[in-house]
Design a protein that fits this description.
alpha+beta, nine-stranded mixed beta sheet, five-stranded antiparallel beta sheet, single chain, 2 helices
């Protein structure tokens, strides 16, 4: 009898242990499944939030671009009306009002600086860039040019070009395009003065324009000569550096010659360049600023809780080749310029 009771007790104990084990296994499986479900939920929510953030970021970027276009429109209208471009240094000034583009989408702040320390542009062989040179101090007042003012033109190497300046020819040695191995284009700079210029006529352009051919040379050469504005055609040595992959050519003006408005046209030979930087300094090593040429625009766009900030430099005046052509004659065929002349006759060379 006691033996049977013992067996029954052992069987019940084993069954209780098996039940406890099953219960623990079930609890563990439920915990694992719960963790998996929570993990998938978090991943799904994270992906959904990332996708929403990307969408909102794109909307905020477009809102900031709209603010840039609004600022450019306001500045262009001011120039067309002959009014000065208004500076805006804080978001609440009101010269360039923020705008709402949709529910929760707007550009919240526009900052505009119409006076820049340098001009940044591009240059190529097929078209020209015309830029006004109106120099002022940092606060917009007249700039003290001293007894000499120097304009520096710094441009980058050609895309895919070897930046080693040793490959460039010596000053005045112009090779053919096919045999030119220099990794930098030659920069042509035409500068026209508007002083005492009643109108843009052929005679007026010829008498008030100087041309400078800034030729890339090895960086080991001496400081380039600085021609005066009276020079009509001058080859300027432009030392290049393989470290910065840039060349710099300089033109100087004596006295107060730069107190008037100038226009400079930039083109290239032997290839294009993606970046040209123009800056100016007087004989006292003081930097000049450029007015009414380019403006720095800083706009913040918002889409719900996402912000995007866009900072750009925009041109304030646009000139194309139809308004200011690169030459008097344009032809898709060869044009012969070779001729001979004597005291009695003129004979074309073609």
């Amino acid at each position: 009898m006691s033996s049977n009771m013992t067996n029954v007790t052992e069987r019940m104990t084993k069954q209780d242990e098996r039940g406890l084990v099953s219960f623990m296994v079930t609890i563990i499986m439920m915990l694992v499944i719960s963790l998996i479900v929570v993990g998938f939920t978090q991943v799904t929510n994270s992906n959904r939030r990332e996708q929403l953030d990307r969408q909102l970021s794109q909307q905020a970027f477009y809102a900031a671009e709209s603010g840039v276009n609004k600022a450019v429109s306001v500045m262009s209208a001011a120039l067309a009306a002959g009014n000065p471009i208004k500076e805006q240094t804080t978001c609440k000034q009101g010269n360039y009002d923020p705008g709402t583009l949709g529910v929760g989408v707007e550009y919240t702040c526009i900052l505009v600086n119409p006076i820049v320390s340098q001009i940044v542009t591009t240059a190529n062989e097929t078209s020209s860039k015309v830029i006004p040179i109106n120099l002022v101090a940092s606060n917009g007042t007249n700039f003290n040019t001293g007894n000499k003012l120097t304009l520096n033109f710094t441009w980058s190497a050609k895309t895919g070009g070897d930046p080693n300046p040793v490959l460039c020819s010596t000053r005045g040695d112009f090779t053919t395009t096919a045999s030119n191995n220099c990794g930098y284009p030659l920069l042509r700079v035409d500068i026209m003065s508007t002083k005492n210029l009643p109108s843009i006529s052929a005679a007026g352009l010829a008498g008030n324009t100087s041309s400078f051919f800034m030729q890339p040379v090895s960086s080991g050469l001496s400081t380039p000569s600085l021609p005066s504005f009276a020079t009509k055609g001058y080859i300027v040595e432009a030392p290049c550096s393989s470290v910065t992959a840039t060349c710099t050519g300089s033109v100087s003006f004596t006295g107060n010659a730069m107190t008037t408005l100038y226009y400079t046209r930039i083109t290239t030979l032997y290839g294009d360049t993606e970046r040209v930087v123009i800056d100016a300094v007087n004989s006292l090593s003081e930097s000049a600023y450029f007015k009414d040429a380019q403006a720095q625009v800083d706009v913040t766009g918002r889409a719900q809780d996402v912000l995007r900030r866009v900072q750009v430099t925009v041109p304030l005046q646009q000139f194309d080749n139809s308004l200011i052509p690169q030459g008097a004659v344009h032809s898709t065929a060869d044009v012969c310029k070779q001729f001979s002349i004597s005291s009695a006759s003129y004979t074309p060379g073609c």
